Structure formats: structure tokens, C-alpha cells
TrEMBL record:
Annotated protein name in UniProt: Pyrroloquinoline quinone-dependent pyranose dehydrogenase beta-propeller domain-containing protein
Protein's organism: Hypholoma sublateritium (strain FD-334 SS-4)
Keyword Signal: yes
Domain Pyrroloquinoline quinone-dependent pyranose dehydrogenase beta-propeller residues, every copy: 38-456
First and last residue of the signal peptide: 1-24
UniProt keywords, alphabetically: Signal
Annotated Pfam families: TrAA12 (PF22807)
Amino acid sequence: MGPIYILALSILTLHLSAVPSVLATFQPLAVPFRSPVTVAAGLSASVIFSNLTTPRGITFDTEQNLLVVERGFGVTAFTPTTFPAPGWNRTVVIQNTGFTQGIQIDGDKLYVSTATTTFIYQYNALNRSIAPNVAPISIVTGIPGDGDLTTHTLQLEQDVSGKAVALLIADGPLENIDVTARDPASGRSQIRRFVLPTISFSDPPAPLSWANGQIIAFGIRNPAGFAFPTVGIPPSGSKFLLVVENGASIDGLANLTSAFVNDNPSDELEFVKYPISLSGIASTAPKTYGFPDCTSLWNPLADPVGNPSFVNKTRGFQFSLELEPSRDDAFCANVSNNQPPILNFQAHSVPLDIKFYEPPQRFTPKGLPLLLLGHAFVSFHGSFDRSPPTGYGVVQFPYPISRPANNGLGYSFVVQATNLNTCPGSCIRPVGLAFGKDGRLFVSSDSSGELFVIEQQ
């Protein structure tokens, strides 16, 4: 009777996991993906939880609970368990339909964001809950919340001792091609940095204003994911940051054919160096990465008849969208107007997060191969306006970047939807990435409502 009991309980809790609840719910192992996936040789991918509400940003707390922003619901925690069978428990941490994507953890401080405000909650990792009767701190207010993309990725910056000293916040454009983003003061399509005050929940600091944040980069259309590389030492008083950017949809531009825009422009990986000292902030202007005027070529032969001017160009060529006559290709070739990317991704891949594989803190044969240490991993959400579809997976590449020869990709998939012609549908659409202490890579998939893990076989 034991196995029958467990099966019945599993079915019940799978159903409950789709329903908002203050109680923990359970899902057993071996529940299949909604749609098949293909995994790189030597690796496997498996679902840890299904039927979630648009899971987006993810991170691990100090007890290795996986925290997830379920957009439209709140924050939930996922914990491995062996009772009533091997599987995962889901616990509701905060119910708030306004949370978008950004999430960070610093000990007992949980950072999350709505479209206009970033909050800090007092969080207890042992029981996966926020402190009762303790109001969250509004740490940054006035973030532009009226644009097309208001997910506001968050990233804590640490000093050499590991102390969180600043918070980076991203903002997207007002619209697909947003001319206001040319002006860094607009607050659009950029990343701002906020030096953190002393955080006390009993005596909370005054909110920091978005308008007063340090602009570390602008002209990045949708800086959806960013991370500090684990190799390479920046000069004293500065930091390096790698940023994945979604290219604009250029279907409506009269000078470009539908065949050309089906395979252009590329999505991008940007390299950002920014000052962290007060003197550096005062003396160093932030760099622009070209949006909305400049973008990157992916396939010069996408339409050699309709757009022959690109035929002799190479992948990564910076070309103008010709929004104004003075902002032409020559304008885009000038790095003072447009910092080019260090790597190009296939058009319409829609990269949304980036993480670097650091040495695992706990050995397990399931951790990713050690030969991948230092490599970058990027989630590809996937196209909605390309035929055939592309993306719908997670890729990896070595860092520092070596430009691929002969139009090679420069990256490879570790997992991808098996039949792209059925996508989006029920395919995986990866968003958030997080490495566990054991070296396994966890992934959120929003439209399929799944969390899954990539590990060695």
C-alpha cells in the first residue's frame, strides 16, 4: 500500500503547487518536462517543480533554498526533501503580485523589485520566511515604471571582504526603439549603481532616489542580465561587469526587408568597466552602447537582393538604424557614440541572464565538469518573431572571450528545446540562472512554469 499512497499524495501536491498557498507543497522527482529537451553530451536536465506562476529571477539563500520570483504571485522557496518521497518542497515566502524579476540575497536581507521600487525584506533562511510585523525597506524609489520592459534586474556588488556595498539596478526602454534613451538623464535603457547605507530594520534608512544613482552604462536597450566575471582583475577603484542585451525589433523600418530582419540584428554581450571610487565617479563619464541608433549585424546574407549593402560586411558589424541622417554607419563606428559588444548572439535569441561557474563549495559528482570553471552561462528565452524559431535553451562559452573564426557561434548549447518548430508553445523558455554550492546549474522557465536543474550524468 506504501507506493500507492505516495503516488496519490504526489498527484495531489502537483495539483496544489499551481494554487497560491501559505503551506509548503511537494513535487516528486522524475516529473517530465512539458516539452522534450536535448542536453549536451555528459549532462542531464530534470524538472524539480512544475505548474508555477511565471518563474523569473532566481537565487540561493544561505541554507541553499532556491528562491524564485513567480511573477504575478510573489517569492517562493524550493527545498529538496526525502519525505514523503524524494522531491522538492515549495514554500510561499511573500505574496505580492507586483514583483517583476530582480532578486538578490545578502544574509537576512532579501532584495526584490516592483516596476518602480526596490525593497529589502528581513528574511529567515532557516524557516524560509520573512520576519513578521517587520515592514520592508524601500531602498530605491522612483525607478521608471511606465516602459515596455520593467523587470529591473538586480545585482549586489561586494567589496574584497564579501560585504555587499552597492546595488546595481537595470531599466529598459520606454518603447521598442526609444530615442529618449540617448540621454543618460532619461533613466532609460541603462544600469545605475547605488551605494548602500547601513541597513537596519528597526531604524530604516531614507530611500535612495533613482534620479541620484550613478549611471555606469547607458544605451543598452534591455540590460536583462549581468554578472561580475570570476577571472580578470579590474584596475584599482573600478569593476568589470558583463551584460546581456536584447536587440531591438526592427521589423517596422522601411529600409530593411522582412527577410533581413528575420535574421538581424544580433543580440549582444557587453563589457562594462565602471568606477567605484568617488573621485572616479566624478571624473569618468559613463559609456554608451549605441541604443537606439546603432546595432549589430548577425547574418549579412539574410537578404542579398533586398539589402545588398550588407553582403560584404562581417558578423558584428555596427550599423545604423538611420533614425536621423547624422547618425549613420560612420557615427556607429565611433566608440565614443557606440561601444561595440564583445560577443554577438544569434538574432532573436533573447538572452535574459548570465552566470559564471565558480569552484563548487561542496563536491558532488553531479556538479558541472570542472573544465567549465570560469565559463559563462546565458539563458536564451527564445524568439517570437523569427522563422524558424531560435533560442529556447541555455548556452555556455569560455571567458575571456575569443572572437569565433569563420562566423562560428562562439558558444554552445547545454540544453535546448528539442523541436524548435513547436516553440514557443510548451517549450522551455529559460530566464533565471543560479549555481548551487554543489556546482549544479538551476534554471527557471517562465511560460512553461518550470524549474529545472542541469547536472553531470
